[in-house]
Amino acid sequence: MADEGDSEPRKSFKLLGFLDVKSVPCARESVLYGSLGSLVVGLGHFLATSRVRRSCDFAVGGFICTMLGYWFYCRYNLAQHRIRQRMLKEGMRNKILFEGSSLDPERKQTGNERSDS
């Protein structure tokens, strides 16, 4: 019911004023995994040492490390996916272009066609 009648576009969330989490690939997941890593590292360090300030420092470090680590992992997988997608698109274009011609690699050539070339 809330979606009905909402004609205004949704505003995106900007992290630190410049990182648009909605439109930048991998940004949302990186921030979520970073916050989870921050919680785990900070809480784990606090339970081990009972030092609040140092645990907060470790939590910030855990956030940065986890966020950057997942960011690079996600961007690498995204780049690989785009390369595979481009190769597939080019292969489909070549298949359509060469289908039925003498350059078609799937077409079985007879002895007469081989001697003509």
What does this structure look like?
The structure is a single chain. By secondary structure, this protein is mainly alpha-helical. It has helices at residues 27-49, 52-98, 111-116, and strands spanning 14-15, 19-20. A two-stranded antiparallel ribbon has the order 1-2. The model has no long low-confidence stretch (mean pLDDT 82). This is Cytochrome c oxidase assembly protein COX20, mitochondrial. InterPro entries: Cox20 (IPR022533).
Radius of gyration: 27 Å
What is the average per-residue confidence, as pLDDT, rounded to a whole number? 82
| Structural class estimated from helices and strands | mainly alpha
Helix content: 55-70%
Strand neighbour order, sheet with most strands: 1-2
Ends apart, CA distance between termini = 68 Å
Q: What gross morphology would you assign?
A: elongated
Percent of sequence in beta strands: under 5%
Overview features:
117 residues, mainly alpha, two-stranded antiparallel sheet, 3% strand, membrane, mitochondrion, transmembrane, Cytochrome c oxidase assembly protein COX20, mitochondrial
List strands and helices in order, with pairings.
Layout: E1 14-15, E2 19-20, H1 27-49, H2 52-98, H3 111-116
Antiparallel strand pairs: 1-2
Family: Belongs to the COX20 family.
Protein name: Cytochrome c oxidase assembly protein COX20, mitochondrial
Keywords: Membrane, Mitochondrion, Mitochondrion inner membrane, Transmembrane, Transmembrane helix
